[in-house]
Amino acid sequence: MNLRVDVSGWMFSPDCDDEQGLEFARLLASAQDGGATVAECLQVASRIVEGDKASWHREWRRLAEASADRAEQALADGSRVTAASNWLRAINYYLASIHLFDTSDRRCPMVIEAMRKCAASYLRHAPAGGEIISIPWIEGRTLQAYLLQPAESRSASPMVICVGEPGHRKEEYLFKLARHAGERGLALLALDLWGEGSEDCGAEVIAHPEITTIFSRVLDHLSERNDIDLSRIAVLADGWGSSFVARGIAAEPRIAAAACDGGLWDFHQRRFLARRAAGRGMDVYPDVFVSRVARNIECPLLITLGERGWLKAEQAEEFVDRMRSDGRDVTLRLFTSAETASEQGHSDNPTLANEFIFDWLSARLGQILAACQASARH
User: Fold this and answer.
1) Which CATH number among 2.60.40.420, 3.30.70.270, 2.160.10.10, 1.20.1440.110 corresponds to the domain 1-103?
2) Residue 9 β-bridge partners
3) pLDDT averaged over every residue in the chain
4) pLDDT tens, position by position, 133-166
5) According to a count of CB atoms within 10 Å of the terminal CB, is the N or C end of the chain lower?
6) Can you tell me the distance from the alpha carbon of 297 to that of 246, in angstroms, rounded to the nearest whole number?
C-alpha cells in the first residue's frame, strides 16, 4: 500500500478508501500515547491491498496477535512493563482489524474476545492494579467498566468517568486516557454502551428512556466503595455522536465537573430548526435557542472543539455566551489548525487535547479538595 505525506499528516494514496485513511491516521496519532508504533503501522500499510477489506483485517489482526504473544512472553520473562505496552498495542490493532466491519460480521466475535482478553491481562498487571466491574443498569443489560487507580493512591481518589459515544469501546481508553489520568493522581473508570457480554449498541439503546440514568447508576455503585472520593467525580465524553452524555450529566447533580458537548449538539439542532421555521414565516420564541440540556447542567463544564471539525467555532462561541449569560461556569477551548488537534474529535492529535482536558479536570477537582480543607480548618 502506497503512502504519501502532506501538511495534514500521513495518508494512504489518493485513491484509497477514505474510511481506511482516517483509521490509519488515528492509529498513527495513537502512537504518542502507546497505542501503536509508527514503524509497525507503516509496515502493515505496505502489505494491505487497497480496497480489499480482507487484507486490511488480516494484516492488522496478524500484528495484534504478534503483540499479544510478545506480551505473554515478556510477562513470562518477568518484564511486566513491556508486557503492558504490548497488550495496549494489541488492543488497538485488534480494534483496527474490525473497523471496516459491522459487529454481525463473523470475524468480529473472535477478535473482540481476544481484545478483551488483552484488556483483562493489562488490568491484572497494571502498576496500581485494575479491575473489571459490573454495574446494574436496565433490565437485560449490565454495564461493564474498567477501573484503574493511580499508582500513588494512598486515600480515596478523585475519579474521571470516561464514557464513549455509540460505537466507541472502553478498551481504547486504556491506551488513550489512562496515562493522562494516572499521572495526575486521578482514578479512571472506562465505560461504554456495549453492555456486559453484549454486542448490541444500536439505536434502541440510545433511545432508551433510561439512557440519562447511566451516571446515577455508576455513582450509586461507586458509593459502596471506600477508595473513591465521591465529592470529586468528573465525566469525560469521548466522541460526539450524540448528546446522551450531556443529558446524563444534567440529570446527575453529584458530578463535580465535566468535559463534553454540554448540549451543544442539541443547541445546534434547535438553532437549525428555528431558522427553518423563521424562513417559513413562523413565530420563533427567544428561548428556542436555549438548550434544555445546558440549562440543567450545574457543574463546571469544558467544551473542546477542533477548528477543522464539523461545527463552526462561532456557533460554539454563541452557545457558550448564552450559557455564561445564564450564570453557567463554562470554558471553551478551540484548537486551531496551526497547533493541531483541530480535526473532528481531535483525531489528528488526541494527546494535545487530552493534556488540556485532564489538566482542566484535575484543577477543578483540586479546587474542591482545597475548599473542603479550608472549610475544615475553620
Assistant:
1) 1.20.1440.110
2) 6
3) 85
4) 999 888 778 889 999 999 876 789 999 999 877 7
5) C
6) 8
Contact 153, 185 (CB under 8 A): yes
H/E stretch holding 146:
strand 141-148
> How far is the CA of 320 from the CAs of 92, 204, 289, 291, 312, in angstroms?
35, 31, 12, 11, 13
Residue with cell 470554558: 331
CATH architecture label of 126-377? 3-Layer(aba) Sandwich (3.40)
pTM exceeding the 0.85 threshold for the entire prediction: yes
Amino acid at 293: V
Number of other CB atoms surrounding residue 231 within 10 Å:
14
| Domain segments of the chain as ranges | 1-103, 126-377
Residue 335 has pLDDT above 60, yes or no: yes
Contact (Cβ atoms closer than 8 angstroms) between residue 14 and residue 63: no
State the pLDDT confidence band at 13, using cuts at 50, 70 and 90: very low
Count how many residues are written for the chain.
378
Q: Which residue has the higher pLDDT, 295 or 366?
A: 366
- Burial of residue 341 (CB within 10 Å: 0-12, 13-18, 19+) is buried
List the grid coordinates of 62.
496478524
Q: How many other CB atoms are found less than 10 A from the CB of residue 113? A: 10
Q: Which backbone phi and psi does 90 adopt, to 5 degrees?
A: -60, -40
185-231 pLDDT, tens digit each: 999 999 988 766 656 665 567 667 788 889 999 999 999 999 999 99
The C-alpha cell at 349 is 492529535
